[in-house]
Structures are given as C-alpha cells and as structure tokens.
Amino acid sequence: MMQGIAGKVVVITGASSGLGEATARMLAREGAFVVLGARRVERIEALAKELNDAGGKALAVTTDVARRDDVQRLVDAAVNAYGRVDVILNNAGLMPQSPLDRLKVEDWDRMIDVNIKGVLYGIAAALPYMQQQKSGHIINVSSVAGHKVRAGGAVYSATKTAVRVISEGLRQEVKPYGIRTTIISPGMVATELPDSVTEPDVAERMHKAYESAIPADSFARTVVFAMSQPDDVDINEILFRPTSQEY
Ligand SMILES: NC(=O)c1ccc[n+]([C@@H]2O[C@H](COP(=O)([O-])OP(=O)(O)OC[C@H]3O[C@@H](n4cnc5c(N)ncnc54)[C@H](OP(=O)(O)O)[C@@H]3O)[C@@H](O)[C@H]2O)c1
Predict the structure, then answer these.
(1) CA separation, residue 31 to residues 6, 10, 18, 98 (Å)
(2) Quick one: DSSP state of residue 57?
(3) Ligand 1 centroid from CA 38, angstroms
(4) Interhelix angle 217-227/18-29, nearest 10 degrees
(5) 2 and 220 in contact (C-beta within 8 Å)?
(6) Taking each helix axis from N to C terminus, what angle separates 41-53 and 18-29, rounded to the nearest 10 degrees?
(7) 221: which DSSP letter?
(8) What pLDDT digit, counting tens, does each position of 181-205 carry?
C-alpha cells in the first residue's frame, strides 16, 4: 500500500466516468474511502458497489455541481459517513468547444456553471470542515487549455484558467490551516470528454485528435502522487500530456 492514501476520505466530483472514475478505482484499491458525486446516479452506484464488493469503502451521492446545495450534500455525506473530509477532487467538467461566432451561449453558460462555479461550490463545501480539522487537500482539475488558448477554445480555456487562478489564491489563503492545494492540468486523456462537444464539425476534429490520447490511469497516478507526499510537502501544480501531444 502506498503511503498517505489508506484511510483518507476523498470526495470526487465527476466520478461517473473518465478521470474521476479511474481515480476512484485507484484510490479505493489503495485503501482510501471514496465518496462519489455525479448526475448519472446509476453509474456511481454501480461503481460504489463494485468497489465495496472488492473490499473497499465507497459511497455514491447524486450531485449536480452546478447546484450549491448538491455539492454541500455530497461533502456532508462524506463527513457523516466517515467523520471527516481529507481530500476533495473538484474534477467534474465539460468541454463543448466552438468558435465564439457560433454563439453557443448555452454551452458557455454550462461551462461556466460546471467548470468554474462547480469548483467554487466544492471549495465552499469542504473548506469549513478542513479549517476546523486543520488539515485537508483541495485538488482542482484544470487543463493544458488553462495554460494555452486556441481558436475555438476561448470559453473552455477561460474556465480552466479561472480554475488555476482560484487555486493559486486559495493556496495562499489556507496556509494557517495546514491545507494543501493542487492544480492538475492534463493534456489529452481518453475519456468521454469529447462527447460533450455539441458542434458536429468540432466534435469530429476533437475525436480525431483524441485518437492519440493516453489512458485515464495517467491522471489517477498524478492524484496519488500529490496525495502521498508527507504532510509538509504541497504539490501545487502538475501539468502532463501524452508524449506525442504538440499543443
Ligand atoms: N480528458 C481530457 O483530455 C482532459 C484534459 C484536460 C482536462 N480535463 C478535465 O478533466 C475533468 C474530467 O473530465 P473527463 O475527461 O473525465 O471527462 P468525462 O469522461 O466526460 O467526465 C466528466 C465527468 O464530469 C461529470 N459532470 C459533468 N457535468 C456535471 C455536473 N453538472 N454535475 C456533476 N458532474 C458533472 C460527469 O458526470 P455526469 O454526467 O454523470 O454528471 C462525468 O463524471 C474535466 O474537468 C475536464 O475539463 C480532461
């Protein structure tokens, strides 16, 4: 077993597929207690059952991260079940990219609601518990797109840049409480993310690009790396890509 994982209570948003699901599996295998949030409840319930049947500890809570009450309920459920919250992985997100002149305003709204406000709601729900505990770890998922913007990706990049800015401000503010903060910025990782693109021509290009994406375990390992450091080591940012990715 890896150090610093077993027995930790970890809340994961967006645990029904992709990066969140892979991370839940890896952490549960290493002995963490995982609390899974997503809207597709049948998926997180099936995953929780699978992890529990394998001897792990997992709980599923239906969560729409665009609703503050839902996120609070998710974190409260972790504390009620296990007495504390050690880590929150604010991972839920979507990427319906398109050029601005297509005026996909509903997609912009959803990205802002989920990718930015969802992360803020996660912080709002977990921070008071972590301040009280005088320990905790807030891990926010940004992207290579939070470091670079390309035509067609303005709003998505804006949301992922916001995640980095919020995380850096948070990092400085939570020093008195011994809370750690990590930004993880993946490149192309094989998940359902390209399915969130709503414009057919953009979706086609995206699926083509994602043919060289790497497995979701790559992300889960970065979470394990950040979590497994000694308490006095705070891994603030991890940026990784497929070796073949140019952008
Ligand atoms: N894969 C990549 O290449 C890549 C690269 C950089 C960054 N990222 C980031 O990684 C994160 C995870 O994405 P993924 O790649 O794993 O994609 P994914 O397979 O599509 O998973 C997205 C997850 O977010 C959840 N989600 C979406 N809207 C939600 C909402 N309103 N409330 C709660 N959960 C919601 C989905 O669950 P439900 O639909 O069941 O609610 C799902 O579990 C995202 O923030 C994404 O921007 C991914």
Answers:
(1) 4, 11, 20, 41
(2) E
(3) 9
(4) 50
(5) no
(6) 20
(7) H
(8) 999 999 999 999 999 999 999 999 9
pLDDT at 47: 98
Whether 121 is catalytic is no
Question: Amino acid identity, residue 221?
Answer: R
The bridge status of strand 237-240 relative to strand 179-186 is parallel
Rg (CA), the chain: 17
**Separation of 134 CA from ligand 1 center, angstroms?**
29
Extract the residue ranges of the chain whose pLDDT is less than 70. Answer: 1
Give 64-118 as a DSSP string: -TTSHHHHHHHHHHHHHHHS---EEEE---------GGG--HHHHHHHIIIIIIH
Determine the Cα–Cα distance for residues 189 and 193; give it in Å rounded to an integer.
9
- Pocket around ligand 1 at a 6 A CB cut-off: 13-20, 38-40, 63-66, 91-95, 114, 141, 143, 186, 188-189, 191-193, 196, 213
Chain centroid offset of residue 15 CA: 8
Is 13 in a helix, a strand, or coil? strand
pLDDT at position 1 is: 58
